Amino acid sequence: MKLFNICFKYSLRYSQVRHLLRTTPVSKNLCAARCLANLPPDDGNIGSGSLLGLRLLSTSSSSGKFSKHDLKKERQDDVVVTTTSDHIVINENGISEKNVSGMWLRDHCRCQECFSETRYQNLYDPSKIETKPTIAKLEKKGNSVHVDWNDGHSSVYTLDYLLSLLDNKPIRYPNRRLWNAEKLTSEIADVSFQEYMNETEGLAKCLRNLYTYGIAFIDNVPLTKEDFLALSERICFLRECEHGRDNIVISSKEKMYDDIAYTNHSLGFHTDSAYSVEPLGYLTFHLMEHTGEGGLGCYVDGFHVSEIIRKSNPDAYRILSEVLVKQEFIDKHVHYKGNYPVFTIRDNEVKIIRYQTTDRISVQHLSLEETEQFYDGIRLFNKLIYSPENEFWIKYNPGRVVIFDNFRLLHGRSMFTGTRVIRNTVLPRDEVDSRIRKLTGLG
After folding, report:
1. Other residues' Cβ atoms within 10 Å of the Cβ of residue 160
2. Do residues 152 and 180 touch, judged by C-beta distance below 8 A?
3. Measured between alpha carbons, how far is residue 182 from residues 113, 120, 312 in Å?
4. What parts of the chain have a pLDDT lower than 50?
5. Can you tell me the distance from the alpha carbon of 20 to that of 5, in angstroms, rounded to the nearest whole number?
6. How far apart are CA 168 and CA 310, in angstroms?
7. What pLDDT score was predicted for residue 53?
């Protein structure tokens, strides 16, 4: 029963867990299992447990402990590959059997004729093949599968490569830290403007925070428009929006635009541009001046909240990802509208949260039962985002810039007196994510 439970919980292969239980002390089984599954050694905390997991992974087999090399060797021995003319069958340990199309296999050949490593581009185009390729010969050699095709081409695939492509259970939120207020406060640190602007590692540190937590802070920023734009463009070019390349928000009793954001009223938790096909990706805020009191900023990790709902109320999670909510925004020169669910889910995880109650115009017509489920789900979501343990409050200070992920975090503010001036820019999603991958390897 213990073996089955570990396999099921961490989506591990039978041979991996069998070896783990045989060679790892009982007290370390769970830690090692989580490392195998590319998860932190425990469900919410990165600390000494991570070091333990890394030690377990790096221990040689001669020590009699858990070894990744041993698992790879055992995988090679336990995998049987057989073939017909149009597909192959990969069998692991007599338990897991996968039928792999020959057409798919040919399309994933990575020899230099079929794939350019230097350009990282496919050279083989299956849409132009008139005759379906068939397998003339197959041979398994250690960790490799060698295939000769009927057209004279030969391909070599490693088992690790094939099995990684065939794994249809992606890890949920890899390398991200879903947080409540206490956790974020204890873990995240500011990056100085000088380090951020002048050192690659400073920029990487900021981007690492942005990917991991959905938010990053840069302090000691000069109070000029030029320095703020330079800070934003240090990551990538800017996304121009209806208010221009950069936006200056002067909030007071007198509205600058017909929008509550330009008043001194409090703002409830929301994501920006929930009406858009592609909502604003990453936002930067810099308080330039404030003559009054109040106006604290607040952030909530929407991914963390969605996970609470997924685990505690699957029906609410499902309906918030299915029911379309019409969002609309009309101002002087623009008219935006769209129909999207609160949760956009891909790869078994929430990718985008769209939640803006002031722009919500209508909800699609549902059955009586589904209508009740939807409004119950919205109330649950709202209750969780306004739970004090999930609210991360900050005082905006001149010289401290916040960058945050608008797909993930909800933000709001408290009411304030006087007049305050905030500059903000929008960074395009794909460009920031590209920089994160290049500089940190995340994402």
Report:
1. 13
2. no
3. 53, 42, 21
4. 1-29, 31-74
5. 13
6. 20
7. 30
CB of 18 within 8 A of CB of 3? yes
Q: At what angle do helices 368-385 and 302-312 cross, to 10 degrees?
A: 130
What's the confidence (pLDDT) of residue 248? 73
What's the gap between Cα 101 and its chain centre? Answer: 30
Q: In this structure, what token pair is assigned to residue 309?
A: 């709902």
pLDDT 10s digits, 325-352? 999 998 878 899 999 999 999 999 999 9
Q: Which residue intervals of 11-101 are DSSP H helices?
A: 14-23, 29-36, 48-58, 68-78
pLDDT at 397: 94
Length of the chain: 443
Q: 161: which 2 tokens?
A: 């490569």
**Do residues 137 and 183 lie in contact, with contact meaning Cβ atoms separated by under 8 Å?**
no
Structure-token match 């889910």, residue found: 345
- Looking at residue 238, the DSSP 8-state letter turns out to be P
Write out the two tokens for 19: 């070896």
Name the E strands within 170-294. 191-192, 215-219, 247-251, 267-270, 282-290
